[in-house]
Specification:
This protein has 162 residues and is α+β, with helices and mostly antiparallel strands. The protein has one domain: Alpha-D-Glucose-1,6-Bisphosphate, Chain A, domain 4. It is 42% helix and 23% strand. The chain has a 6-stranded mixed beta sheet. Helix 2 packs antiparallel against helix 3. The protein is elongated, with a radius of gyration of 20 Å. The chain starts with 7 loop residues before the first strand and ends with a helix.
Length: 162
């Protein structure tokens, strides 16, 4: 099945203890800043929450990006350190909206394909196909850009390679 909505999963392995990993994450994660409390002096790379075994954070940015990935992670102790399993996902509201968008456009495109296969064609019939591609690129490109930046920060704070 083709993935339309972006999703990525990685596993970091580090020789650090679970408690050390939690401390590093906590030191690099601030309280969520709401739209009405936005400040420019937020000095931590992430905001969100960190608990004893898992975390849900996102990168602090100074611009609007609805496709900013949420990092949902689980920390598991292993013999030689920790595995940090991280899923990069879209915000739930954005996912629901984009599924709605792609569903409506997909139905429209299928209907137009049936009309085109029936012998009728008008240049304006390609608009929904263009909107579908536009939506896909609008979703995937900013998401992948932000995932790359988040991975760089994670590599830096944990000093590991993926």
């Amino acid at each position: 099945m083709m993935k339309i909505l972006p999703f990525e999963e990685i596993i970091f392995h580090t020789a650090l203890s679970k408690n050390h990993v939690l401390k590093i994450l906590s030191n690099n994660t601030g309280e969520p800043i709401h739209a009405f409390k936005y400040t420019l002096d937020h000095n931590k790379p992430f905001e969100g929450s960190v608990s004893e075994r898992e975390f849900k954070v996102w990168r602090v940015i100074r611009y609007r990006n609805s496709f900013l990935p949420r990092l949902i992670g689980v920390i598991d102790e292993v013999d030689d350190g920790c595995n940090i399993k991280i899923q990069f996902r879209l915000h739930r509201f954005v996912s629901i909206f984009m599924i709605f968008w792609f569903s409506l456009l997909g139905i429209g495109c299928l209907g137009l394909l049936l009309i085109i296969m029936g012998g009728e064609f008008n240049i304006f019939m390609i608009i929904p196909f263009g909107m579908f591609l536009f939506g896909a690129f609008l979703t995937i490109l900013p998401f992948k850009y932000e995932v790359k930046k988040a991975k760089q920060i994670l590599n830096k704070i944990f000093e590991v390679e993926v």
